[in-house]
Specification:
Helix content: over 70%
Distance between the termini: 24 Å
Strand order of the largest sheet: 1-2
Radius of gyration: 19 Å
Number of helices: 12
Oligomer: single chain
Order of helices and strands: HHHHEEHHHHHHHH
Number of strands: 2
Structural class: mainly alpha
Number of domains: 1
Largest sheet: 2 strands, antiparallel
Amino acid sequence: MDGQSLAWTTGIAFVIVLCLGPIVIPLLRRFKFGQAIRAEGPMRHQQKQGTPTMGGVMIILAVAFTAWRFSNSAQTWIMILAMVGFGLIGFVDDSIKVVRKRNLGLTARQKLLLQVLVSVLFYLALYAHGWHFQLDLPFVSQPLSLGIFYLPFLAFFMVGFSNAVNITDGLDGLASGTAAIAFAAFAFLAWWNSEWNVSVFAMAVVGALLGFLVYNRHPAKVFMGDTGSLALGGALSAVAVLTRTEFWLLLIGGVFVLETLSVIIQVFSFQTFGRRVFKMSPLHHHFELVGWSEWKVVSVFWGATAALSAVALMLYLRG
């Protein structure tokens, strides 16, 4: 597959989301699918109250159609399964929030059980297509065979990254821009390893996210909601699994990892010592309260993801 095909994939996904925006956003507004802003968040976020959410449906539709059109393969459908499966969990979560007019949807236990279920379905899809359940470790020639332990690893990996992207989705354009950069890095890794189907899927996500950024950049006209963030996290982990680059996602997706760690550290510190490490978690809110503008936080996090991705690609190619 040449670069022209990938460019078409990216461009068409971009145009689809661009065209869906004027249709979907007014519908979300008409049906009052507005974001509920938590009271304990930064005060300036209260002005975002009621902004249409669940815009992630545009991303999912564009990616599913484009990936199917340019790469109708078993691998493609397995990645679509991960994206749509986690996206449906987010859709249910968002719907509960909208109906009950609150910032809490599914309980943590309900969400976890559903995420594990989708991870198991993903595992079964891999098994049905003869997948070798092993890990390629950085700078190690022999893969690590996990056997029956691959399933709990996979569930932890997919649940962890779907929630990490969800946690990061707290500022206009933050999750969408960061994810676009990460997917672009994995598209290159897949292309380098002749994993054409994965590369097409990843570039379809990049195109869809760039189209979504037209409406999601500050000041956002629409939010992706859990529908989009959980779908992106599921898709990102699926791409890493199919390219056998799970450990490289820790570096490429370093911003997602740091955002998640900031929440864990904050909760542990407060419950154990009664003290907060950050002014507010996740990490992007800490920088807001330090005095950074929303655009500065987003642009710095984008830059950090680009730098981490560049380092990861250089190390990968050298290894």
